[in-house]
Amino acid sequence: MPHSQMRMSVIPGAAAGRLSMLSRGLSILECFTPGESSLTLSEISRRTGLAKATVHRLIMELLVWGLLDRDGKDLCLGRRVAILSDRVPEPTRLIHRILPHTPLFIARRECPAFFTLLSNGRSLHFEAREGRRVQEDDVAFGAPLAVCVSAAAKVITAFRTWVRPDGIRQDSRRRERVASLPYRGEAGLSKIVHQGYAMTRTGRTVAVAVPISDPYGSILGALSVAIPPGGAHRTAVVRELMGAREALSSVSVHSATEKTA
């Protein structure tokens, strides 16, 4: 499914054809892809499902704003898109790079899943399918988000405490700092690092989290999955998450390392 259609499917009112003018304008911008940077008005009309007259009117406004430019008889994304891109927070950029590598099993199993990324001493959380930023008290996700946040914090703490950026475990002097941590101290953190994941339970819901690192081993965050009662088998989720960890850690995120480490 093209990315623009994927985005349109989650816009309220899209299925019923009741898009706001803002949504219609954004749907035009979503038509462009890395392999198709220039499109005709007719092609934009076909991809958005909007009438050519509507597309023409919106295009004229987008040209004025610099969000579109002319490429001969075709249209392409404009200079202001590049300007806005430079203002995107680094964690959002990182999510954009990671999302294409999100394990397919997350969507297939329909398990709630979240990315937790480190940024300036804070933990930021993103829904793992669409990359939408969520708050820890987001009632739309409830208990699955809470247990995933807990599992992510546990695995991040373990790997940042015990493992140096080059992948070598810290010596005993560095490990003294974990004595006051609420994860059964040194032994608990050591076990998490050894097995490669952390697990947390809240009520009947279990969450599993694996660390996300850059190619040099610096911990950037975690991917966590909540397994509801009667849901996916825990062992299978752990196995697939461990496989995903390798794929996610291979993503080139050099520019994010200094800001998130």
Strand content bin:
15-25%
Assign the CATH architecture of the largest domain.
2-Layer Sandwich
Q: What is the total number of structural domains?
A: 2
CATH topology tier name of the largest domain: Beta-Lactamase
Runs in which pLDDT lies below 50 for 5 or more consecutive residues are 1-10, 171-183, 252-261
What spatial form do the alpha-carbon principal axes imply?
A: elongated
How would you classify the helix and strand content by structural class?
Answer: alpha+beta
Overview of this structure, please?
The chain has 261 residues and is of the alpha+beta class. It folds into 2 domains: 3-85, Orthogonal Bundle (Arc Repressor Mutant, subunit A), CATH 1.10.10; 90-260, Beta-Lactamase (2-Layer Sandwich). Helices cover 45% and strands 18% of the residues. The protein is built from 12 helices and 9 strands. The strands form 2 sheets. Strands 6-5-4-9-8-7 form a 6-stranded antiparallel sheet, sandwiched between helices. The protein has a 3-stranded antiparallel sheet with strand order 1-3-2. β7 (198-202) and β8 form a beta hairpin. The chain is elongated. It starts with a helix and ends with a helix. The model is unreliable at 1-10, 171-183 and 252-261 (pLDDT under 50).
